[in-house]
Design goal:
The protein is an alpha/beta fold and about 650 residues long. Among the domains are: about 120 residues, Immunoglobulins (Immunoglobulin-like), CATH 2.60.40.10; about 230 residues, Glycosidases (TIM Barrel, Alpha-Beta Barrel), CATH 3.20.20.80. It has an eight-stranded parallel beta barrel. Strands 23-24-25-30-27-28 form a six-stranded antiparallel beta sheet, with helices on one face. A hairpin with a 4-residue loop joins β16 and β17. α4 packs parallel to α5 and α7 runs parallel beside α9. The longest helix has 22 residues. The C terminus is likely disordered.
């Protein structure tokens, strides 16, 4: 019944211990081996300090006698092949440590796991899913994300929406409900909080145990493949939060895996992460590099993930538990190595850094001395803008620089502007409730904030619930307050978000030169007294530009003079104070023609009405295009009239 055998070549084992076996999941873990009509099950694990390793599970009534794995090299790779098809069976490794203790461990390379609070691994085949996203994959190869719109909807699957009985929606049910919802809002990507298997719900997945096991809370690995497949068929990219810095210390997981500090540092100062109660990966250990880089490739290969967002990059690049910052060289080297491998595997993959440090060249390619990320979260912009918005409007003139400082470094990196889950939890209030003032003013300033974000250079990320005008913080143990859409101001906020994203995606000046200084120009950066900011967003095409005028006070201005970069006519394409969005209706309905009056350093200017706590977005009128559109309208009206007879 039991056959122990050598399953890896010496070269494969050498690569693993050298830190360059980037598809380690093909060797380690539980695999069904098909040999003619016979299906065997092979288990392989790395446990160099173990005295003995046994496989236990449903199939042997959790009794490891007679089920010892064979140690196949001196570096501690163990393997066994059983002459049985054990698909669907629960299992763990029973490890005898150097001190004689017996410990039970889940498989670090398991593809599937029990639903918490149970912790066993499950033998599971990832084969036979029929992908239907060829068109999406082909499109990605010819797509330049830097010059394209990117609006990311960040979501925690367990609290977006619940079933009537309070249970989680499955991956398949989320495909039916979440995907059309996000698509209809106008987002381009869904970013999901970590889906690696994890024991504690309130860790949100950031304290994982199974780096190859998509969490069983919402279904099987094939169910998640279905979810990603449906995202791609609907034109949505999928980004996963991924945590290569630290892991949870639960007994069944990676911590002291074979009785030693195998995946983490042996010295306490480098190992312990007191903020999260976790253990830091030893990124300098070559086998850990093989393990983690293989995990990244695994999610891309088997689940067609379009990008990874690396959590807590500061924890990767600086040594922990020091009074002063000290660069962690093995962390820097790991990040560079990761990106070399990932982009060689798929150049279209997106890699995001959740980085709060001021380390330069985060998004510079590795070959030019950088860390190699595709994008960096602009945490400085987020903190400055939210701090400014939380300041009472009559005091904002003293903090004017907080809204302008980011433009001094906006093009040093490829930035994403994030209003993430971290900003709406733990007493920080929801985005809406951060806004000072009365009920109406809070909604007006939320619209103002979102329009300013859309106008500012950088890609966009927003956490679920903002579009409803949430008053409450994120409830990670509940669901979004969907009943809010029954109320007028919340319904209008939802409509506003859809319109804002529609304008964003169809306006090249808002994304084409996102990461180039030619795409942005201040008109008036110094009007602290009135707390009014005006600027231009431009594309590479002549006269293709948008003018933003943002008023961060409740004061209304009529015939307000603004210098403009081009002579001609301007049409207001968005006004956050429109009645349809819940505003007071201070808008500019007529085309605004320039006057020959120099202002703000420009030769020409326009006069317009400035709404309270509002943004007016103006597009330069292309007369030829306007005339063509008018002719097209007449033609369509004529056809429609003829059909109606």
């Amino acid at each position: 019944m039991v056959v122990s055998c050598l399953v890896t070549s010496k070269s494969q084992m050498h690569l693993f211990h050298e830190g360059t076996l980037y598809e380690s999941y093909r060797i380690f873990g539980a695999h069904l081996i098909k040999d003619n009509h016979l299906i065997r099950t092979r288990f392989t694990v790395w446990a160099p300090h173990a005295m003995d390793v046994r496989i236990v599970g449903d199939f042997n009534k959790w009794n490891g006698n007679g089920y010892s794995l064979l140690r196949i090299n001196k570096e501690g790779i163990w393997s066994i092949t059983l002459n049985e098809n054990l698909e669907g069976m629960l299992y763990k490794y029973e490890i005898i440590t150097e001190t004689g203790d017996t410990i039970l461990k889940a498989d670090p390379f398991a593809f599937y796991s029990e639903v918490r609070p149970n912790t066993a691994s499950i033998v599971y085949s990832l084969d036979d899913f029929k992908w239907e996203d060829r068109q999406w994959q082909k499109q990605k190869c010819h797509h330049n994300p830097l010059a394209s719109p990117m609006a990311i909807y960040e979501v925690h699957l367990g609290s977006w929406r619940l079933k009537d009985d309070g249970h989680f929606l499955s991956y398949q049910e989320l495909a039916i409900e979440l995907i059309p919802y996000v698509k209809d809002l106008g987002f381009t990507h869904i970013e999901i909080l970590p889906l690696v298997e994890h024991p504690l719900d309130i860790s949100w997945g950031y304290q994982g145990t199974g780096y190859y096991s998509v969490t069983s809370r919402y279904g099987t690995p094939h169910d998640f493949m279905y979810f990603v497949n449906e995202c791609h068929k609907n034109g949505l990219g999928v980004i996963l939060d991924w945590v290569p810095g630290h892991f949870c210390k639960d007994d069944h997981g990676l911590y002291k895996f074979d009785g030693s500090y195998l995946f983490d540092y042996s010295n306490e100062q480098d190992r312990e992460n007191p903020v999260w109660g976790t253990a830091n990966f030893n990124l300098g250990k070559l086998e850990v590099q093989s393990f983690l880089i293989s995990s990244a490739i695994f999610w891309m290969e088997y689940f067609h993930i379009d990008g990874l967002r690396l959590d807590a990059v500061a924890n990767l690049i600086y040594l922990p538990n020091r009074s002063e910052k000290q660069v962690k060289q093995d962390g820097i080297d790991f990040i560079k190595k990761l990106h070399k491998v990932v982009f060689q595997y798929d150049p279209s993959i997106l890699m995001f850094a959740e980085d709060s440090t001021d380390l330069p060249q985060v998004t510079t390619p590795v070959c030019y001395g950088g860390l190699g990320f595709s994008y960096k979260w602009n945490m400085g912009w987020m903190n400055d803008v939210l701090s400014y918005m939380e300041t009472p409007s009559e005091q904002r003139n003293h903090y004017h620089h907080q809204m302008t400082f980011s433009l001094l470094y906006a093009f040093n990196e490829n930035f994403v502007l994030p209003f993430s889950h971290d900003e709406v939890v733990h007493g920080k209030k929801s985005l809406l409730d951060k806004m000072p003032g009365d009920y109406w003013q809070k909604f007006a300033q939320l619209r103002l904030l979102l329009a300013f974000m859309i106008g500012h250079p950088g890609k966009k990320l927003l956490f679920m619930g903002f579009e409803l005008g949430h008053f409450s913080e994120w409830k990670d143990q509940g669901q979004l307050d969907w009943n809010l859409l029954d109320f007028d101001m919340h319904e209008k906020t939802f409509a506003y978000v859809k319109e804002l994203l529609k304008i964003y995606k169809r306006s090249r000046p808002l994304f084409q030169l996102d990461h180039h200084p030619k795409g942005f120009e201040w008109i008036d950066v110094n009007n602290a007294e009135q707390s009014i900011f005006s600027f231009v967003r431009k594309s590479s095409k002549e006269n293709d530009l948008l003018v933003f005028v943002c008023n961060f006070t409740p004061v209304v201005y009529h015939d307000y003079l603004v210098g403009v970069p081009k002579k001609g006519s301007y049409r207001e394409i968005l006004n956050t104070d429109s009645v349809e969005f819940g505003g007071s209706g201070v808008t500019n309905k007529r085309i605004l023609k320039t006057i020959n009056q120099p202002f703000h350093g420009k030769v020409d200017s326009i006069k317009l009405s400035i709404p309270p706590f509002g943004v007016s977005v103006l597009r330069m009128v292309n007369k030829r295009k306007e005339k063509k559109n008018d002719q097209e309208k007449v033609r369509c009206d004529a056809i429609g009239g003829w059909k109606g007879k």
